[in-house]
Every structure is written in structure tokens, then in C-alpha cells.
Amino acid sequence: MIRLENICKIYGTGEGRVKALNGIDLTIEKGDMLSVMGTSGSGKSTLLNILGCMDRATSGDYYYDDVHVSALSAAKLDLFRKQKIGFVFQDFALLPNYTVYESIEMPLIAQNIPGRKRRKTIERVVERLGITNLMDKKISTLSGGQKQRCAIGRAVAKDSELILADEPTGALDSKNGEEIMKLFCELNEEGRTVVVITHDTGIAGYCKRHVRIEDGVMVTHDQEVVVERDRIVTVKDGRIS
Ligand SMILES: Nc1ncnc2c1ncn2[C@@H]1O[C@H](COP(=O)(O)OP(=O)(O)OP(=O)(O)O)[C@@H](O)[C@H]1O
Ligand SMILES: [Mg+2]
Fold first, then answer.
1. CB of 45 closer than 6 A to ligand 1?
2. Helix (H) or strand (E) holding 42
3. pLDDT digits (tens, 9 = 90+) for 186-232
4. Nearest-CA neighbor of 88 among 140, 147, 31?
5. What is the CATH superfamily name and number for domain 2-93+160-240?
6. Is any atom of ligand 1 closer than 6 Å to the C-beta of 144?
């Protein structure tokens, strides 16, 4: 279980000071699938980066099971991230001159997984994502949807418990977006905890629970209408009803 208590994040100093998160409290149960919505600049990526141990809060506490994450040293935080977290970045963050295979292999190398086991894992992941035929292609030659699948492959190749995705369908048409969300649902059904940032209520509808951030503050709307796939559903107290 993840628990954030009174998380604040301030960027910069003096005139350029920005309070991106202002006292976020959030609990995420193991096996949950959460959407994070909010307008541009509201603090969604900042929150995800902190959850994903890519960045630290300025103040507040982050607990993951019995680990006090916000108190870990830089080296321990790095190790914790590599073991626990798969991250799909807003802009994919893939290197153009690497192949799909090499891109997915990188985090496995970082975890010191031996070569033969890496190959087996990668072959399983690309098959699942329907990109086996792209394995030896360079990232620079792929379409947006293909890059997105590769970025997801990289995030899920290691058996990370927590998958964090920042606008994973932002660059995709609705059909590809839905396929990506179905994939996240499958991973969630297998027991992985999933957090997805999206602007799209239809995409959010694939999640089990929803939160909204405005100006760095969590606003849990009492009632909110979202479109779940092809039907209208109501969200009350952060849960679809
Ligand atoms: N590295 C940084 N340095 C300074 N300010 C930053 C930095 N990253 C984000 N900010 C500021 O913090 C606020 C929150 O940014 P954040 O990227 O979390 O928003 P967001 O909700 O993800 O927006 P979007 O939907 O556009 O991706 C914004 O005002 C942004 O300008
Ligand atoms: Mg963002």
C-alpha cells in the first residue's frame, strides 16, 4: 500500500518559485487502478514523478508498504525505484538510435538480469504487446502508437509492482488508446498497481478509482460524470458507481 501525507513540492526560488504540489494526501491500495486528472500545470506529472521516485517532495511523507520512501538515501531510492517501479513517460523518453529490443533491455541490464533471461523476458513482452515484428527496428522509424507500445514494454518488462503512466495515450488515436488501456487493465488484473494520468475521461473510465488535482491540491469531486468506454457512469467519492 502507498501512502502520501501532506506532500508539497516547490520548484525554484525567489521570483521563479512555483508551488506545484500543496499538501497532497493520497492512499493507493495494492492492486488498485487509479486515474489522475486535472488541467495542464495542475501538478499531475510532479505527483507521478514523486510516486515513481524520479524526484523528491520538498516536504511531507511517502510510505510504500513499510518503507519510509521520503527518508531513503539517494542510492537506496534509486535501487527502490529500479526494483518496484515501471514508468511510462509523457514523451516516451526513448532513444532514437536504439532498437525496440535494446530499449526494453535497458532496465533489465540495470537490474543485472543475465543475458539469456533478458532475451526470454523481452520476447515474452514484445509478443504480448504485438510488436514482435518490430524488435530489431530503430525507435526513430516507428509510428507514435508503436513507440508507445515500446515505452510500455520497457516499463513492464521487469516485474515491477507499480506501473506509472504519464498520458500514455496522449499521442494516440482512440482505437490505439483503448488497446493500450486494455493492456493496462490486464496488467492490473495480474495484480500490478497502475496509476494513469490522462486528460481524457473516456480513458480514465478504464480505471477503478479517480482523483483530480487542481493547483497542486487534490480535489475529490463528490460527483462527476465520466464516459466509461461507451456508457456514461457517475463517480462518487472517487469511485465509479
Ligand atoms: N522542473 C521544473 N522546474 C520548475 N517548475 C516546474 C518544473 N516542473 C514543473 N514545474 C511547474 O510546476 C507546475 C506543475 O507542473 P506539472 O508538470 O506537474 O503539471 P501537469 O499537471 O503534469 O501538466 P500537463 O498536463 O501540462 O503535463 C507547473 O506550474 C509547472 O510549470
Ligand atoms: Mg504533465
1. yes
2. none
3. 999 999 999 999 988 888 889 988 888 989 998 875 445 555 555 55
4. 147
5. P-loop containing nucleotide triphosphate hydrolases (3.40.50.300)
6. no
